[in-house]
Protein backbone atom coordinates (compact mmCIF):
# COMPACT_ATOMS: atom_id res chain seq x y z
CA UNK A 1 0.00 0.00 0.00
CA UNK A 2 2.81 2.41 0.86
CA UNK A 3 5.44 1.29 -1.65
CA UNK A 4 4.59 4.22 -3.92
CA UNK A 5 4.64 7.99 -3.43
CA UNK A 6 2.31 8.54 -6.40
CA UNK A 7 -0.39 10.32 -4.32
CA UNK A 8 2.19 12.77 -2.98
CA UNK A 9 3.69 13.40 -6.41
CA UNK A 10 0.37 14.05 -8.08
CA UNK A 11 -0.68 16.53 -5.40
CA UNK A 12 2.60 18.42 -5.49
CA UNK A 13 3.27 18.35 -9.22
CA UNK A 14 -0.20 18.41 -10.74
CA UNK A 15 -3.12 19.33 -8.48
CA UNK A 16 -1.70 22.20 -6.42
CA UNK A 17 -0.45 24.18 -9.47
CA UNK A 18 -3.92 23.92 -11.05
CA UNK A 19 -6.12 24.69 -8.03
CA UNK A 20 -7.77 27.67 -9.71
CA UNK A 21 -9.30 25.45 -12.39
CA UNK A 22 -10.92 23.18 -9.79
CA UNK A 23 -13.08 25.91 -8.25
CA UNK A 24 -15.97 26.03 -10.80
CA UNK A 25 -16.62 22.27 -10.75
CA UNK A 26 -16.17 22.14 -6.96
CA UNK A 27 -18.77 24.89 -6.61
CA UNK A 28 -21.18 23.00 -8.86
CA UNK A 29 -20.80 19.81 -6.87
CA UNK A 30 -21.15 21.61 -3.55
CA UNK A 31 -24.41 23.14 -4.70
CA UNK A 32 -25.66 19.75 -5.82
CA UNK A 33 -24.57 18.06 -2.59
CA UNK A 34 -26.16 20.71 -0.40
CA UNK A 35 -29.41 20.45 -2.36
CA UNK A 36 -29.43 16.71 -1.68
CA UNK A 37 -28.05 16.56 1.86
CA UNK A 38 -29.45 19.65 3.57
CA UNK A 39 -32.93 19.34 5.08
CA UNK A 40 -35.87 21.52 4.11
CA UNK A 41 -35.38 24.57 6.33
CA UNK A 42 -37.06 27.28 4.29
CA UNK A 43 -38.69 29.64 6.76
CA UNK A 44 -38.19 27.29 9.70
CA UNK A 45 -35.49 26.01 12.01
CA UNK A 46 -34.39 22.41 11.57
CA UNK A 47 -32.01 20.25 13.58
CA UNK A 48 -28.92 19.26 11.64
CA UNK A 49 -26.17 16.75 12.38
CA UNK A 50 -22.68 17.78 11.32
CA UNK A 51 -22.03 14.75 9.14
CA UNK A 52 -25.13 15.52 7.11
CA UNK A 53 -23.85 18.96 6.20
CA UNK A 54 -20.16 18.30 5.81
CA UNK A 55 -19.26 14.68 5.07
CA UNK A 56 -21.24 14.13 1.88
CA UNK A 57 -20.79 17.70 0.66
CA UNK A 58 -17.08 17.57 1.36
CA UNK A 59 -16.71 14.16 -0.25
CA UNK A 60 -18.40 15.23 -3.45
CA UNK A 61 -16.39 18.43 -3.75
CA UNK A 62 -13.26 16.44 -2.93
CA UNK A 63 -14.16 14.05 -5.71
CA UNK A 64 -13.76 16.88 -8.20
CA UNK A 65 -10.09 16.38 -7.61
CA UNK A 66 -10.33 12.63 -7.20
CA UNK A 67 -13.01 11.69 -9.69
CA UNK A 68 -14.62 14.92 -10.74
CA UNK A 69 -17.97 15.04 -12.47
CA UNK A 70 -17.47 18.20 -14.45
CA UNK A 71 -13.90 17.43 -15.34
CA UNK A 72 -14.24 13.89 -16.64
CA UNK A 73 -16.13 12.01 -19.28
CA UNK A 74 -17.66 9.88 -16.51
CA UNK A 75 -20.37 12.23 -15.22
CA UNK A 76 -22.01 9.92 -12.73
CA UNK A 77 -19.03 8.66 -10.75
CA UNK A 78 -18.65 11.35 -8.12
CA UNK A 79 -22.40 11.16 -7.44
CA UNK A 80 -22.35 7.38 -7.39
CA UNK A 81 -23.64 6.37 -3.95
CA UNK A 82 -21.63 3.17 -4.03
CA UNK A 83 -18.40 5.10 -4.63
CA UNK A 84 -19.26 7.68 -1.98
CA UNK A 85 -19.99 4.96 0.56
CA UNK A 86 -16.80 3.05 -0.22
CA UNK A 87 -14.54 6.09 -0.15
CA UNK A 88 -16.00 7.52 3.07
CA UNK A 89 -16.17 4.24 4.97
CA UNK A 90 -12.75 3.05 3.85
CA UNK A 91 -11.23 5.69 6.10
CA UNK A 92 -13.55 4.83 8.99
CA UNK A 93 -12.70 1.15 8.73
CA UNK A 94 -8.95 1.72 8.44
CA UNK A 95 -8.85 3.91 11.54
CA UNK A 96 -11.10 1.54 13.47
CA UNK A 97 -8.79 -1.35 12.66
CA UNK A 98 -5.67 0.64 13.53
CA UNK A 99 -7.07 1.85 16.86
CA UNK A 100 -7.98 -1.69 17.91
CA UNK A 101 -4.64 -3.16 16.85
CA UNK A 102 -2.76 -0.50 18.81
CA UNK A 103 -4.04 -2.11 21.98
CA UNK A 104 -2.02 -5.24 21.23
CA UNK A 105 1.71 -5.90 20.67
CA UNK A 106 2.74 -5.79 17.03
CA UNK A 107 3.56 -9.50 16.82
CA UNK A 108 -0.14 -10.25 17.38
CA UNK A 109 -1.49 -7.89 14.73
CA UNK A 110 -1.52 -10.43 11.90
CA UNK A 111 -3.49 -12.81 14.10
CA UNK A 112 -5.99 -10.30 15.47
CA UNK A 113 -6.70 -8.28 12.32
CA UNK A 114 -8.68 -11.04 10.53
CA UNK A 115 -10.94 -11.27 13.58
CA UNK A 116 -12.08 -7.66 13.21
CA UNK A 117 -15.19 -6.85 11.12
CA UNK A 118 -13.62 -3.52 10.12
CA UNK A 119 -10.67 -5.37 8.61
CA UNK A 120 -12.94 -7.22 6.21
CA UNK A 121 -14.92 -4.07 5.46
CA UNK A 122 -11.65 -2.47 4.31
CA UNK A 123 -11.26 -5.24 1.75
CA UNK A 124 -14.90 -4.83 0.67
CA UNK A 125 -14.40 -1.08 0.22
CA UNK A 126 -11.27 -1.69 -1.84
CA UNK A 127 -13.04 -4.28 -3.97
CA UNK A 128 -15.80 -1.77 -4.71
CA UNK A 129 -13.28 0.92 -5.63
CA UNK A 130 -11.47 -1.41 -8.01
CA UNK A 131 -14.74 -2.42 -9.65
CA UNK A 132 -15.71 1.22 -10.23
CA UNK A 133 -12.33 2.77 -11.08
CA UNK A 134 -10.83 -0.10 -13.08
CA UNK A 135 -13.18 0.13 -16.09
CA UNK A 136 -12.73 3.91 -16.22
CA UNK A 137 -8.94 3.57 -16.39
CA UNK A 138 -9.12 0.93 -19.11
CA UNK A 139 -11.66 2.93 -21.15
CA UNK A 140 -9.60 6.10 -20.94
CA UNK A 141 -6.51 4.27 -22.12
CA UNK A 142 -8.43 2.75 -25.02
CA UNK A 143 -9.87 6.14 -25.97
CA UNK A 144 -6.44 7.77 -25.79
CA UNK A 145 -4.96 5.06 -28.01
CA UNK A 146 -7.77 5.51 -30.54
CA UNK A 147 -7.24 9.28 -30.54
CA UNK A 148 -3.55 8.80 -31.31
CA UNK A 149 -4.57 6.81 -34.38
CA UNK A 150 -6.96 9.54 -35.46
CA UNK A 151 -9.95 7.30 -34.79
CA UNK A 152 -11.45 9.37 -31.98
CA UNK A 153 -11.85 12.97 -30.86
CA UNK A 154 -11.27 11.89 -27.26
CA UNK A 155 -10.60 14.80 -24.91
CA UNK A 156 -8.44 13.85 -21.97
CA UNK A 157 -9.93 14.48 -18.55
CA UNK A 158 -8.14 16.69 -16.04
CA UNK A 159 -9.31 15.07 -12.82
CA UNK A 160 -6.96 13.58 -10.26
CA UNK A 161 -7.40 10.05 -11.53
CA UNK A 162 -6.19 11.15 -14.95
CA UNK A 163 -3.33 13.11 -13.42
CA UNK A 164 -2.22 9.97 -11.59
CA UNK A 165 -2.51 7.96 -14.79
CA UNK A 166 -0.34 10.53 -16.57
CA UNK A 167 2.58 10.41 -14.12
CA UNK A 168 2.32 6.85 -12.82
CA UNK A 169 5.42 4.73 -13.28
CA UNK A 170 4.97 1.30 -14.86
CA UNK A 171 4.76 -0.49 -11.51
CA UNK A 172 2.13 2.03 -10.32
CA UNK A 173 -0.13 2.05 -13.36
CA UNK A 174 -2.28 -1.07 -12.91
CA UNK A 175 -5.96 -0.08 -12.59
CA UNK A 176 -6.26 -1.86 -9.24
CA UNK A 177 -3.30 0.09 -7.86
CA UNK A 178 -4.74 3.36 -9.11
CA UNK A 179 -8.05 2.54 -7.43
CA UNK A 180 -6.21 1.87 -4.19
CA UNK A 181 -4.39 5.21 -4.48
CA UNK A 182 -7.76 6.92 -4.85
CA UNK A 183 -8.84 5.51 -1.50
CA UNK A 184 -5.54 6.46 0.11
CA UNK A 185 -6.06 10.05 -0.98
CA UNK A 186 -9.51 9.93 0.56
CA UNK A 187 -8.10 8.46 3.78
CA UNK A 188 -5.62 11.31 4.07
CA UNK A 189 -8.02 14.11 3.29
CA UNK A 190 -11.78 13.91 3.40
CA UNK A 191 -12.33 13.17 7.09
CA UNK A 192 -9.80 15.71 8.29
CA UNK A 193 -11.50 18.26 6.04
CA UNK A 194 -14.91 17.25 7.35
CA UNK A 195 -13.77 17.58 10.95
CA UNK A 196 -12.16 20.97 10.38
CA UNK A 197 -15.39 22.24 8.82
CA UNK A 198 -17.49 20.82 11.66
CA UNK A 199 -15.22 22.42 14.27
CA UNK A 200 -15.53 25.77 12.50
CA UNK A 201 -19.34 25.54 12.51
CA UNK A 202 -19.35 24.56 16.20
CA UNK A 203 -17.04 27.47 17.03
CA UNK A 204 -19.18 29.91 15.05
CA UNK A 205 -22.31 28.82 16.89
CA UNK A 206 -20.43 29.22 20.17
CA UNK A 207 -19.31 32.74 19.15
CA UNK A 208 -22.20 34.03 17.00
CA UNK A 209 -20.92 37.62 16.90
CA UNK A 210 -18.46 36.51 14.20
CA UNK A 211 -21.16 35.43 11.74
CA UNK A 212 -21.60 39.04 10.63
CA UNK A 213 -17.97 39.91 9.78
CA UNK A 214 -17.41 36.59 8.02
CA UNK A 215 -20.58 36.87 5.95
CA UNK A 216 -19.81 40.46 5.03
CA UNK A 217 -16.28 39.59 3.92
CA UNK A 218 -17.42 36.63 1.84
CA UNK A 219 -20.42 38.41 0.32
CA UNK A 220 -18.39 41.46 -0.70
CA UNK A 221 -15.56 39.48 -2.27
CA UNK A 222 -17.84 37.07 -4.14
CA UNK A 223 -19.83 40.04 -5.49
CA UNK A 224 -16.67 41.82 -6.61
CA UNK A 225 -14.56 38.96 -7.97
CA UNK A 226 -16.81 35.92 -8.21
CA UNK A 227 -15.99 32.39 -7.15
CA UNK A 228 -12.29 32.49 -7.94
CA UNK A 229 -8.99 31.58 -6.33
CA UNK A 230 -8.12 35.26 -5.68
CA UNK A 231 -11.42 35.56 -3.81
CA UNK A 232 -10.53 32.63 -1.56
CA UNK A 233 -7.03 33.99 -1.02
CA UNK A 234 -8.43 37.34 0.14
CA UNK A 235 -10.74 35.84 2.78
CA UNK A 236 -8.40 36.80 5.61
CA UNK A 237 -10.99 36.73 8.37
CA UNK A 238 -12.36 33.35 7.33
CA UNK A 239 -8.84 31.97 6.86
CA UNK A 240 -7.89 33.21 10.33
CA UNK A 241 -11.07 31.78 11.86
CA UNK A 242 -10.37 28.33 10.40
CA UNK A 243 -6.74 28.44 11.55
CA UNK A 244 -7.69 29.44 15.09
CA UNK A 245 -10.41 26.78 15.15
CA UNK A 246 -7.79 24.22 14.14
CA UNK A 247 -5.42 25.51 16.84
CA UNK A 248 -8.07 24.96 19.49
CA UNK A 249 -9.38 21.72 17.96
CA UNK A 250 -6.46 19.98 16.24
CA UNK A 251 -6.88 16.67 14.42
CA UNK A 252 -4.15 15.27 16.66
CA UNK A 253 -2.21 16.26 19.76
CA UNK A 254 0.97 14.99 18.12
CA UNK A 255 2.85 15.47 14.86
CA UNK A 256 5.92 14.00 13.14
CA UNK A 257 5.32 10.46 14.31
CA UNK A 258 8.60 8.70 13.66
CA UNK A 259 10.40 5.43 14.35
CA UNK A 260 14.12 5.25 15.11
CA UNK A 261 15.52 2.78 12.59
CA UNK A 262 18.94 1.12 12.68
CA UNK A 263 21.16 3.66 14.46
CA UNK A 264 20.44 5.39 17.79
CA UNK A 265 19.22 8.97 17.54
CA UNK A 266 20.82 11.61 19.77
CA UNK A 267 18.68 14.66 20.54
CA UNK A 268 20.00 18.18 21.11
CA UNK A 269 19.76 17.82 24.90
CA UNK A 270 21.81 14.63 24.87
CA UNK A 271 18.91 12.20 25.13
CA UNK A 272 19.57 9.04 23.12
CA UNK A 273 16.69 7.18 21.50
CA UNK A 274 17.54 3.54 20.75
CA UNK A 275 16.44 1.78 17.55
CA UNK A 276 12.80 0.78 17.66
CA UNK A 277 11.73 3.87 19.61
CA UNK A 278 8.56 5.64 18.49
CA UNK A 279 8.59 9.39 19.05
CA UNK A 280 6.46 12.42 18.17
CA UNK A 281 6.36 16.19 18.60
CA UNK A 282 3.73 17.65 20.92
CA UNK A 283 2.27 19.97 18.28
CA UNK A 284 -0.82 20.89 20.31
CA UNK A 285 1.22 21.78 23.39
CA UNK A 286 3.42 24.10 21.32
CA UNK A 287 0.44 26.17 20.20
CA UNK A 288 -0.81 26.41 23.78
CA UNK A 289 2.55 27.67 25.03
CA UNK A 290 2.57 31.49 25.43
CA UNK A 291 6.19 31.60 24.29
CA UNK A 292 5.35 30.03 20.95
CA UNK A 293 1.91 31.52 20.24
CA UNK A 294 2.24 34.06 17.39
CA UNK A 295 1.27 37.55 18.45
CA UNK A 296 1.17 36.65 22.13
CA UNK A 297 -2.03 36.75 24.15
CA UNK A 298 -3.79 34.06 26.12
CA UNK A 299 -3.31 30.71 24.35
CA UNK A 300 -6.45 29.33 26.01
CA UNK A 301 -8.59 32.16 24.62
CA UNK A 302 -10.41 31.56 21.34
CA UNK A 303 -9.38 34.58 19.25
CA UNK A 304 -10.64 33.94 15.70
CA UNK A 305 -9.01 36.97 14.10
CA UNK A 306 -5.64 36.44 15.77
CA UNK A 307 -3.93 35.49 12.52
CA UNK A 308 -5.73 38.13 10.44
CA UNK A 309 -4.27 40.85 12.67
CA UNK A 310 -0.80 39.39 12.28
CA UNK A 311 -1.16 39.32 8.48
CA UNK A 312 -2.35 42.94 8.41
CA UNK A 313 0.51 44.26 10.57
CA UNK A 314 2.28 46.88 8.38
CA UNK A 315 5.47 46.47 10.42
CA UNK A 316 5.82 42.88 9.23
CA UNK A 317 4.89 42.53 5.54
CA UNK A 318 6.30 39.01 5.58
CA UNK A 319 3.34 38.02 7.76
CA UNK A 320 0.96 38.34 4.81
CA UNK A 321 1.73 34.83 3.63
CA UNK A 322 3.26 33.45 6.81
CA UNK A 323 0.07 33.09 8.86
CA UNK A 324 -2.35 31.61 6.33
CA UNK A 325 -4.32 28.51 7.27
CA UNK A 326 -2.30 26.30 4.92
CA UNK A 327 1.07 27.79 5.91
CA UNK A 328 3.33 25.85 8.25
CA UNK A 329 6.19 26.88 10.49
CA UNK A 330 8.13 25.47 13.43
CA UNK A 331 5.39 26.46 15.89
CA UNK A 332 2.44 25.29 13.79
CA UNK A 333 2.85 21.67 12.84
CA UNK A 334 -0.71 20.44 12.27
CA UNK A 335 0.07 20.18 8.53
CA UNK A 336 3.65 19.08 9.20
CA UNK A 337 6.50 21.33 8.11
CA UNK A 338 9.22 21.63 5.49
CA UNK A 339 9.57 18.72 3.11
CA UNK A 340 7.22 16.70 5.33
CA UNK A 341 4.34 19.20 5.07
CA UNK A 342 0.99 17.83 3.92
CA UNK A 343 0.99 18.04 0.09
CA UNK A 344 -2.78 18.44 -0.05
CA UNK A 345 -3.14 21.28 2.45
CA UNK A 346 -3.78 23.96 -0.18
CA UNK A 347 -6.56 21.93 -1.77
CA UNK A 348 -7.98 21.25 1.71
CA UNK A 349 -7.94 24.96 2.53
CA UNK A 350 -9.75 25.77 -0.70
CA UNK A 351 -12.32 23.05 -0.11
CA UNK A 352 -13.07 24.10 3.49
CA UNK A 353 -13.47 27.74 2.49
CA UNK A 354 -15.82 26.94 -0.38
CA UNK A 355 -18.01 24.80 1.85
CA UNK A 356 -18.08 27.33 4.69
CA UNK A 357 -18.87 30.23 2.33
CA UNK A 358 -21.85 28.33 0.94
CA UNK A 359 -23.09 27.48 4.42
CA UNK A 360 -22.53 30.99 5.79
CA UNK A 361 -24.22 32.80 2.93
CA UNK A 362 -27.18 30.45 2.60
CA UNK A 363 -28.00 29.41 6.16
CA UNK A 364 -28.26 30.63 9.73
CA UNK A 365 -26.94 28.40 12.50
CA UNK A 366 -27.28 28.28 16.26
CA UNK A 367 -27.32 25.77 19.08
CA UNK A 368 -30.66 24.60 20.50
CA UNK A 369 -31.82 26.52 23.55
CA UNK A 370 -29.71 25.76 26.60
CA UNK A 371 -26.95 24.00 24.67
CA UNK A 372 -23.40 25.14 24.00
CA UNK A 373 -20.38 23.92 22.09
CA UNK A 374 -20.07 20.15 22.44
CA UNK A 375 -16.94 18.77 24.03
CA UNK A 376 -14.48 17.15 21.66
CA UNK A 377 -13.93 13.42 21.77
CA UNK A 378 -10.55 11.74 21.80
CA UNK A 379 -9.00 8.39 21.02
CA UNK A 380 -5.37 8.29 22.09
CA UNK A 381 -3.82 11.39 20.51
CA UNK A 382 -6.62 11.88 17.95
CA UNK A 383 -9.26 14.57 18.47
CA UNK A 384 -12.76 14.41 16.97
CA UNK A 385 -15.84 16.64 16.97
CA UNK A 386 -18.86 15.15 18.69
CA UNK A 387 -20.87 13.51 15.92
CA UNK A 388 -23.98 13.34 18.10
CA UNK A 389 -24.18 17.13 18.44
CA UNK A 390 -26.92 19.02 16.63
CA UNK A 391 -27.34 22.61 15.54
CA UNK A 392 -30.44 24.48 14.44
CA UNK A 393 -30.37 25.63 10.84
CA UNK A 394 -32.61 27.93 8.83
CA UNK A 395 -32.31 29.07 5.22
CA UNK A 396 -31.48 32.76 4.86
CA UNK A 397 -33.78 34.92 2.77
CA UNK A 398 -32.88 36.76 -0.45
CA UNK A 399 -29.61 34.91 -0.96
CA UNK A 400 -27.93 35.26 -4.35
CA UNK A 401 -24.74 33.23 -4.47
Describe this structure in words.
The chain is mainly alpha-helical and 401 residues long. The chain has a single domain, classed as Cytochrome P450 (Cytochrome p450, Orthogonal Bundle). Helix content is 52%, strand content 8%. The protein has 15 helices and 9 strands. It has helices at 6-15, 19-37, 50-67, 81-101, 109-112, 117-148, 160-167, 175-206, 211-225, 229-233, 236-248, 283-286, 306-311, 319-322, 345-362, and strands at residues 46-49, 255-259, 265-266, 272-273, 278-281, 363-366, 377-379, 382-384, 390-395. Strands 1-9-6 form a 3-stranded antiparallel β-sheet. It has a two-stranded antiparallel ribbon with strand order 2-5. A two-stranded antiparallel sheet has the order 3-4. Strand 7 and strand 8 form a beta hairpin. The chain is globular. The chain starts with 5 loop residues before the first helix and ends in a 6-residue tail after the last strand. The model is unreliable at 55-73 (pLDDT under 50).
State the secondary-structure class: mainly alpha
Q: Please tell me what the overall shape is.
A: globular
- Mean pLDDT rating: 88
What share of residues are in beta strands?
A: 5-15%
The CATH topology turns out to be Cytochrome p450
Work out the count of structural domains.
Answer: 1
Q: What is the top-level CATH class?
A: Mainly Alpha
Tell me the CATH architecture: Orthogonal Bundle
Poorly predicted tracts of residues: 55-73
What profile does the largest beta sheet have?
3 strands, antiparallel
Helix percent band = 40-55%
CATH superfamily: Cytochrome P450
Q: Give, in order, the helices and strands.
A: HHEHHHHHHHHHEEEEHHHHEEEE
The total beta strand count reads: 9
Span of the ends, CA to CA? 42 Å
What count of helical segments does DSSP give? 15
Q: Give Rg in angstroms.
A: 22 Å
Q: Spatial order of the strands in the main sheet?
A: 1-9-6
Amino acid sequence: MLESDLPTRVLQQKLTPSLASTIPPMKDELEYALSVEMPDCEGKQTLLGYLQATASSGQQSHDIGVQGKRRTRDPDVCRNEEWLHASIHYTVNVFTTVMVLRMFPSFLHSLIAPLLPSYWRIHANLKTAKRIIGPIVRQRRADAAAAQQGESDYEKSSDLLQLMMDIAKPHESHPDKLAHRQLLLTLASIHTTTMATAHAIYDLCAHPRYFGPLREEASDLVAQEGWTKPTLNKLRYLDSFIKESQRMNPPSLLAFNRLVQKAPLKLSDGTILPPGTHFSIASDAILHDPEHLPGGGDPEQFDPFRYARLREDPRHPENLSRFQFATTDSSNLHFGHGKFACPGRFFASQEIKLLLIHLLLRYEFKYPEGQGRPQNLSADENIYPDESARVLIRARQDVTC
